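Morning!

This is the sequence you dropped in the shared folder:
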Amino acid sequence: MSIFISILWNNVIPLSVMIAIGIILQRVFSLDIRTLSKLNFYLFSPAVMFKLLYTTDIKAEAIGHVLLFFLLFMGLQYVCVEAAIRVRGLPAGRRGAMRNSVLFYNSANYGIPLNQLAFHNNPVSLAVQIIIMMMQSLLPNTYGIYSVNAHKSDWRAIARTIIGQPVIYVIPLAFLLRAGDVTIPGPLMTPIGHLADAFIGTALVTLGVQLGTMEWKLERRMLGDVAMSNVLRLAAGPLLAALVVWGLGTFGAGIDDMTAKALIVSSAVPTSLSSVLLAVEFDNEQEFASQAVFTSTVLSMFSVALVIWALGV
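The structure's back. Tokens below.
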């Protein structure tokens, strides 16, 4: 019960308050959501990724283990979501949005606080979460863009959009500067810090603004697809992660107990705000993406608490 209350109080309620602020602002002022989306994609998200990678000490061995897990885990999740898409017979636009709602999960503004809460600021588990967050930041800006545009754009236009995403450049830059022990001057690092601090609030307000523009239609098809997304993200996610961890342990990958538990917890978080930002930025299934994020965030306070309890963290 204490874990449930902590997740509710420290994660779900603060997220809900920020989303509610966005809804209210949209109702009162009719904000330009595309401007907010561009600020998130091209400014705040790259800043927070650069700051975390530049300032956090991550060992090469940990990176190798986590990346191996991530590749296997994402492969299994992709197989599951593709099977579900075929069973449901979804149209082209909804297929991309469904993939994004399952494959992209909230590893930053939900995953980082959850990791610190569950593992009491353990540096090993935090490093694991930051690596996962790095990959979850990179994927929406590459595969995610392809997924929502593949049915309506040619590959050249999609490639031009992808290479214009700052995140794919700031990740290697942050690693190079840290590896070279390069000190960034204060007049540059200070604004980077301010921009990084603005990411969570702006992303959540953007989700609220999007929810505030929607007409919440109780269509059976929409509800069924949102429910399927939630099940694949919140239930199948941690189960597949546990399967991958077990498999790596069986074949002697050398993942310690703390890292294994951190990886499973990292997979249990709700759908990422990136799926909404992609839907808004590229005008693809905005209502479905917003409902998937909102409902998975609410339901996660029960599912995540269950996962943490099952792991005995």
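Headline: Residues 7 and 13 are 9 Å apart (CA to CA).

More detail when I'm at my desk.
O.
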